[in-house]
Amino acid sequence: MLSVKHSFLLLIGLLVTLPFRCDAFDTGIEGLSVNGYGTLGLIYNDSDNIIYRNSIEQEGRGHGFDFGVESNLGLQIDYIFNQKLSFTTQFVAIDRPEQSFNNTLKAAFFTYHIDNSFEIGLGRLFNDVFMSSEYKNVGFARLWTHLPVAFYGQLAGESYDGAKLSYHLRLGDGVLTSSVWAGRSNFPYDSNGEAKKVKFEPNFGAGLRWENQTWLLRLLYSQARINDKHDDAVAFDDALIQASKFGWPEAASIAGFTINDTWLRYITAGLSYDKNDWVIQSELSVVKSEISVHDKYASAYLSVGHRFGNVTPYFIVSKFMTLGSRETIPPAPAFVPAYQQLQTIAQAAANAFYADQNTLGIGARWDVSQTVSLKAQWDRTWVEKYGGFIFEQKNQTDKADAFNIFSLTVDFIF
């Protein structure tokens, strides 16, 4: 019997064999439209130690070839009730540790146009923290085989349950959109092959976006309170506090590893340029958390491509780093073995939260038709000492590492 993963990949393969030009399904119902997208992707990881993944939500793959990391299949259904009210729902099948209807349902929301300037969305909405968040899984909509891992891989939440109010204003030769939003969301992630999930509740923010036919500029601030009632670090923090009272006074300053009931704040800025066959895009993000170690992170990327007819070669550079040096946990009293064990665990946790990685990607996109594209990309990633964070390792080492990812994708829309 085929697994969910292999059945899903087979379905993608069948869809790719459809004629290269296809239209949305003709439902025969006025106001109802059904569209879809998908990616059939193949990667090769040349590292014997690094477990590669595009996002911390994924389980990751070791040395060799894999179809699951890059592949997905999406379906979107829209219904327009009238000129003011519409409904959108989207389902995404992708390789993930935990398969469920709730995880597959990426969007289900109503949009009401109050007037020509104001609109409000209500339901499960796209979490558009970054420029490509709304179409994160739509490979056909982006230039690269995959989103830059150093930037997009650190956050897994793609949607939230809540409301969003937007205001549109003509400004110069473009449109300025300001928005505020609030709700709650699940933040799924994988830990050594085990599916885990925390809640962002509340989760809210505000953003500005200006765009015309050439430029897109955006700025967004967001913050969320993390709810993780089953966080194992709570007991670890309690043990450190107790140790500070009985022979290891420095232990109290180390406590603070738990993420439960802490706030995560981030600000992102981005721009894109598309004119005269040049395609340029860049984003910068700074994240602030309330844990005791490595509480600030920065990530950024720059992508430059140029169209030559239907072929667009490009390069992309990205970086993800902790702002500050790697935390060194003070030594525990040698005469208490239990305290030494706590110190070892604390140092391992501090190393795991540390980030310092750089990636250079070179690739090309070939638009076979208006609905199908073929892409190839090579990524070289340098991971500094203890700097993996997004990636897991078979054997934890205290040395810098580097590895290559080769990816091929067929992206399509219908």
UniProtKB/TrEMBL annotation:
Classification via SUPFAM superfamilies: Porins (SSF56935)
Entry superkingdom: Bacteria
Range of residues in the leader sequence: 1-24
Entry annotated with the keyword Signal: yes
Keyword terms of this UniProt record: Signal
Presence of the UniProt keyword Signal in the record: yes
Name of the protein described by the UniProt record: Porin
